[in-house]
Design a protein that fits this description.
This protein is 7% helix and 37% strand. It is mostly beta strands. The protein has one domain: Jelly Rolls, CATH 2.60.120. A 5-stranded antiparallel β-sheet has the order 1-2-9-4-7, with no helix packed on it. Strands 6-5-8-3-10 form a 5-stranded antiparallel β-sheet, with no helix packed on it. A hairpin with a 6-residue loop joins strand 1 and strand 2.
């Protein structure tokens, strides 16, 4: 694998601001046949200081060509991820908890099973309601990047 390809895979593994452990199995492409069980998720803390304490991510798959990824995110009840944007669209299902997503100034409450599409470069934030962790399943249309608003 070329150095550029290796760099792309590493960058894509930053799903939800986390880096997969070096001893973790190689991630499949989102296009490969697979089954992911939430109970088996390998949770990792994010590296970016903007993430709230207790936030975790668990990568599932990363496309080695585009960096598009799929993974779980978990935020403690009462936590908030500050306003930010990404270069590519993201597609998220809330699996548990209750969350409020604010996208370009418009807030929407989500319950388990609800789905949201956040367009590329849309400024958005997440607030997890107190009382239960928010667990998300997110697919990204390209490499994961975070650009936090000042």
């Amino acid at each position: 694998m070329s150095q550029a390809s290796q760099s792309l895979v590493v960058a894509a593994a930053l799903l939800l601001g986390t880096v997969a452990r070096s001893d973790a199995p190689k991630l499949l492409s989102p296009e490969d046949g697979q089954i992911a069980h939430l109970k088996d998720a390998q949770w990792n803390p994010p590296k970016a200081k903007e993430f709230p304490p207790g936030a975790m991510g668990a990568p599932i798959a990363v496309d080695p060509q585009t960096g598009a990824s799929v993974g779980y995110g978990k935020f403690p009840g009462g936590a908030a991820l500050p306003s930010h944007w990404h270069s590519f669209s993201e597609y998220t299902v809330l699996l548990s908890g209750k969350a409020t997503f604010t996208v370009d100034g418009k807030s929407t409450d989500l319950l388990p099973g609800d789905y949201i599409v956040i367009p590329a470069k849309a400024h958005h934030r997440l607030s997890c309601a107190p009382g239960a962790d928010c667990v998300l399943l997110t697919r990204r249309a390209g490499a994961t990047d975070y650009h936090f608003d000042s």
